[in-house]
Amino acid sequence: MMELLWLLLPVAAASGWWAARRAEVKRSRAALRRADYFKGLNYLIDEQPDQAIEVFTRMADVDRDTAEVHLALGNLFRRRGEVDRAIHIHGSLIARPTLTADKRRRAMLELGEDYLRAGLLDRAEALFRELLDQPAHTRTALSRLIYIFQQEKDWRQAIAYSDRLERISDEYRGRQSAHFCCELAEEASSAGEGDAHVKAWLQDALIRDPGCTRANLLLGQLAMRAGDYQTAIVAFQAVERQDQGYFPEVIAPLSECYDALGRLDGWIAHLREVQQRDHGGRITDALADWLLRQEGEAAALRFLEQELRDYPTLLGLRRLVEIKLARGEGVAYTELQVLHGISTQLLNGAARYRCDNCGFIVKSMHWCCPSCQQWSAIKPIPDWVLRASA
Ligand SMILES: [Zn+2]
After folding, report:
1. Is the pLDDT of residue 82 over 50?
2. Cβ–Cβ contacts within 10 Å for residue 197, how many?
3. Cα of 338 to ligand 1 centre, how many Å?
4. Is residue 14 included in any domain, yes or no?
5. Contact indicator for 304, 323 with CB cutoff of 8 Å
6. Domain that includes residue 282, residue range
7. Residue 374 CA to ligand 1 centre (angstroms)
8. What percent of the chain is predicted at pLDDT more than 90?
């Protein structure tokens, strides 16, 4: 028996050494992994995504069970525009049977973002709907669903989810949902659903956002179509009261309404009033046009020459040239024609609207900025000289 014990002693010693060695290897691997992790994080903080991807890919190859590394790696691929790889990584993560419920939900959220980025809206919608009942993710899921319904022009759903988000977050969403109502009003109008229906959506918009200029603009257009110019004037004037920056948008319809009612004196008086605070090209142009019609060429030229000296605008300059050209052949007729052609060319290529939020400039009016997706952020450019568009 004693002999056997003596024989087993080296085996026990060897097994102890081997266990200790294993623990040491494990510890050093964990330390290396930690070091790599922080290295990857540092690259992220320094905004060096390529180096971070390299580190995280190495880690993911070595340790296939680390969900955090795969989540980070997937996000990096998405940020770099490699959406297919991001989808593959997040999708594989979700398929793992050993993944905790919390990590699975996070991976679902990230996969939803990947699908959004790839434009696969139906797949993204399905994932975000699944996350709606998870308190930690409800707000994000709701805001992404609202974005999806906006892209799909499903305005009723967008309103319903916007209201739900407002209820749970106490975050004011009225400005956005008022636009959804305006979209529905425009759809109802195009479908010939009747003015009462269209008006109901616009009134809903104004309840949600009393500052919704678009709703009043549409109410004015609705009244004009019905031949009710007085009501239309009230609606267009409300646009001006809500936000003076949108006044250039109502110049043409207001002018038409005042003309239809034979109240041009009142309109010119109003334009003169606005012109005291706003020397934008569209106001100068409109005022010169009506002065020409009402008071004649001399009054219009006098106004333009004085105004353009202090506040030069391309629109004003073109109007001045036009009035001078209308006098007929003269000494500088050909030169004026050239000048008129150049200013028209410049105006045709000019951007007339700019986003207050991100600075994006466009030629035509958009209620939702195509760049930053903000509603009511794009406004007529108040510059005296219109800028060239991108
Ligand atoms: Zn913008």
Report:
1. yes
2. 14
3. 36
4. no
5. yes
6. 264-331
7. 6
8. 49
Dist CA 321 CA 341 (whole Å):
10
| Ligand 1 centroid to residue 283 C-alpha, Å | 25
Q: How far is the CA of 201 from the centre of ligand 1 (A)?
A: 26
Among 262, 286, 301, the domain boundary falls at 262
Other C-beta atoms within 10 Å of 61: how many? 9
Give this prediction's pTM.
0.76
CA of 34 to the centre of ligand 1 (A): 41
CA of 368 to the centre of ligand 1 (A): 8
CATH of the domain at 225: 1.25.40.10
In the reported structure, the alpha carbon of residue 380 is separated from the centroid of ligand 1 by a whole-number distance in angstroms of: 13
| Cα–ligand 1 centroid distance for 351 (angstroms) | 14
**Cα(178) to centroid(ligand 1), Å:** 18
In a domain, 179, yes or no: yes
* Ligand 1 centroid distance, CA of 350 (Å): 18
Q: What is the pLDDT of residue 21?
A: 63
Evaluate whether residue 20 is within a structural domain: no
CB 380 within 8 Å of CB 246: yes
- Number of domains within the chain: 3
Contact call for residues 284 and 319 (beta carbons, < 8 A): yes
Is 134 inside a domain boundary? Answer: no
Q: How far is the CA of 379 from the centre of ligand 1 (A)?
A: 10
Nearest Cα residue to 243 out of 214, 272, 223: 214
CATH, residue 373: 2.20.28
Distance 255 CA to ligand 1 centre (A): 30
pLDDT on residue 146: 97
Strands 353-355 and 361-362, by their bridges, are: antiparallel
CATH code where residue 324 lies:
1.25.40
Please check whether residues 293 and 322 belong to one and the same domain: yes
DSSP for residue 244: G
Which residues neighbour ligand 1 (ion) by CB within 5 Å? 355, 357-358, 360, 369, 371-372
Is the domain of 277 the same as that of 242?
no
Instruction: Give the pLDDT confidence of 306-343 residue by residue, as tens digits.
Output: 999 988 888 898 999 999 888 876 768 888 888 889 88
Q: Which two tokens stand for residue 98?
A: 């050993």
